Amino acid sequence: MKPVAATRKLADIISLEEQYQLATYKKMPVVAERGEGVWIYTSDGERYLDLYGGHAVAGTGHCHPRVVKAIKDQMEKLLFYSNLVYSETRARAAEKLVSIAPESVTKAFFCNSGTEANENAMRMARMTTGRENIVTFSGGFHGRTADAISATFLGKYREIGKPNVPGHLKAEFGDIDSVQAIADDSVAAVMIEPIQSMAGVKMAEPSFYRALRELCDIRGIVLIYDEVQTGVGRTGEWFFSGSDASDGVVPDIISLAKSLGSGIPVGACLVTERIASHIKENDLGTTFGGGMIAMAAVVATLEAIEGDRMLQNVREVEGYLRERLQEVEQVVNVHGRGFLLGLEFADKAKPVHESLLERKIITGTSSDPKVLRLLPPLCLQKDEVDLLVEALQKAV
Ligand SMILES: Cc1ncc(COP(=O)(O)O)c(C=O)c1O
Question: Is residue 140 within 6 Å of ligand 1 at its C-beta?
Answer without folding.
Answer: no
